Amino acid sequence: xxxxxxxxxxxxxxxxxxxxxxxxxxxxxxxxxxxxxxxxxxxxxxxxxxxxxxxxxxxxxxxxxxxxxxxxxxxxxxxxxxxxxxxxxxxxxxxxxxxxxxxxxxxxxxxxxxxxxxxxxxxxxxxxxxxxxxxxxxxxxxxxxxxxxxxxxxxxxxxxxxxxxxxxxxxxxxxxxxxxxxxxxxxxxxxxxxxxxxxxxxxxxxxxxxxxxxxxxxxxxxxxxxxxxxxxxxxxxxxxxxxxxxxxxxxxxxxxxxxxxxxxxxxxxxxxxxxxxxxxxxxxxxxxxxxxxxxxxxxxxxxxxxxxxxxxxxxxxxxxxxxxxxxxxxxxxxxxxxxxxxxxxxxxxxxxxxxxxxxxxxxxxxxxxxxxxxxxxxxxxxxxxxxxxxxxxxxxxxxxxxxxxxxxxxxxxxxxxxxxxxxxxxxxxxxxx
Length: 433
Fold this sequence. Notes:
single chain; 433 residues; mainly alpha; two-stranded antiparallel sheet; 20 helices; 69% helix; glycosyltransferase; endoplasmic reticulum
């Protein structure tokens, strides 16, 4: 056996190397982020408008209809105002862009740290499943998963969204991924609060809500606990954060902060440029996409519940910890179905789901052959190319949609709980029957 082969196997077999690999990726991210901020020019898009909206609120305006910036009216919930008011204070009324970019380096780095921890939760399970196989097979699977982790660090567009544009999508997704990690570690109460904080930054997080509801129904011991977690963990923070606006101009706040009927400009769409503009703006297209979204969620929910019953003899209120992989995968699938059938995707919306793409693909396909790797990498590359193409073209939009279809076709219900737990659950159910 060659030295390289021994290193390849040993670094996959021993868990100590997981931490080393994580540190190497995070170090790379920090170095490349600093270099990007230093050598690539900043692009002003929304930051100035954010500061104008915050300034209007700080001057006493609480009617969302009257809070505006250069890019239009304020369309984000109250948590956005609180965070960006803090950022305004830290950046000399928003004028110190260099300091703002430094802060966003920290936000991006923390998001990557959280995302990589989500991925790393999977590696011990891979080792346990492959322990009966030879070490080379085990090494292939571990390094394949580490490859998925590395891919999350190499998106040019994602670095641009965080570091050169300073979009509010960045801190929003940081909070979302923290909540997912908390759920994976069975911290449901705290996770619901953090999830609600993410919603208070931008309502796109609600795309994860159907998955969270299913998880709460399965992870909670009874319906009362589900209601308490939804009420105290998810709804109450929204009421507290929105109180200054809900108690003064409630209709204006709800209509603008959670503007579900908002129509985006055709010129900025990334995903439907192969449609004529009049068809893109047609109400019928919006209704068809909504129907597809809800139907997709319904079909996958049925598949998920059947898989749970097959494995545990129950569908809801399983009364045992869900596997961490099941939790992350369910949340990511819930969000992706909404992405796939979205009326429009803007460039910054890429941050809503890029980090989950390798997770979805690597979880759904088996084997480490060249064809398997090609199946995984080509759609991810297609999505990246589409979001790098500016302005979007009919061809780039078509590539994006085909890549989305590949992801949808790869989705499979994961194991609800670990195999050993599942065996015990089925035996216990049979005894009760």
